[in-house]
Design brief:
- Helices cover 21% and strands 35% of the residues.
- By secondary structure, it is an alpha/beta fold.
- The chain folds into two domains: 225 residues, 3-Layer(aba) Sandwich (Rossmann fold); 101 residues, OB fold (Dihydrolipoamide Acetyltransferase, E2P).
Amino acid sequence: MLNKRTHVPRATAEGLEVSDLSVAYDGPAVLSDVSLDVAAGEIVALLGPSGCGKTTLLRTIAGLERQQAGTVRLGGRILDDGTTFVPPERRRIGMVFQDGALFPHLDVGQNVAYGLPRAERRSSRVTDTLELVGLADMVDRMPGSLSGGQQQRVALARALAPRPGVLLLDEPFSSLDTSLRVQVRNEIHHLLLELGVTTLFVTHDQEEAFVLGDRVAVLNKGRLAQVGTPDELYRHPVDRWVATFVGDANLIPVATAVGTCRTVVGDVPVVGNVDGPAELLLRPEDIRVEAGDDGVVELVEYYGHDAMVQVRLDDHTSIRVRTGADLVHQRGDRVGVTYVGPGAVALEV
């Protein structure tokens, strides 16, 4: 567990700016015209499916990959623009890889000291940084003797020790089991907030992105689909793909989406009119299951804090409804469904 600290020195955070970035290897572009700003001290989650270019973007920012076009700036300094190229070790960027990437032949202290100038490797910087991540008493341990969570904390300490202007995290919790993942994620989140480190982290987990990110950048097929706060992405996605990727979505087709639409779940007020064919985005929590005869409960997923009920309506439409933890309806029950949300976003088709 990370130590409780009476005072944590805040980082000298710098803003990160990526402009019109394109990256390709031997084939098609991996990233195309990606532009993203991360403000000093901000935590931004980079969310997307496997193979969409998330890790390539991080590696290019770190200087581990070369771009074909675009500019990377940190705190106003140009790191790469096709003419100027600052090597990785001089960028003031810390990176934590998915598997930690610790040196197995070096002990914890030596791993943390690796990125420091030689003159500082025997200073208090190493022990101070290990204390931040709750591992001050493990400075002489070898990585192979540590748990997965401890190894990730050592990797974080190694990235933080040089006091970087920005921290890049590449799915740092994906190798941990579920309970440990949540614990380590929460502890590191608190630490990053205390330190005020500018952070860009990669994940394919929507819940993780929404929990940790001040803002979320959604990447799809090498292009940024949308950037916004978790609430903006969830409530006002720009298109059908984003709507379904960032959460459970019921998409109801309508001939035109203006004013209020009559649907299979009742009258639905529309937010953002579309004068033509559209789909209404109805989140599961905006629908209520009640006594009625609209359809049959075909599936119940119980999560403890709430449940998801899937109802097959008589017109064969399938509707997912988020309910409370106290289950009233069971599989096979005849029920009614009613829209109770504040208004549905209309998405063009």
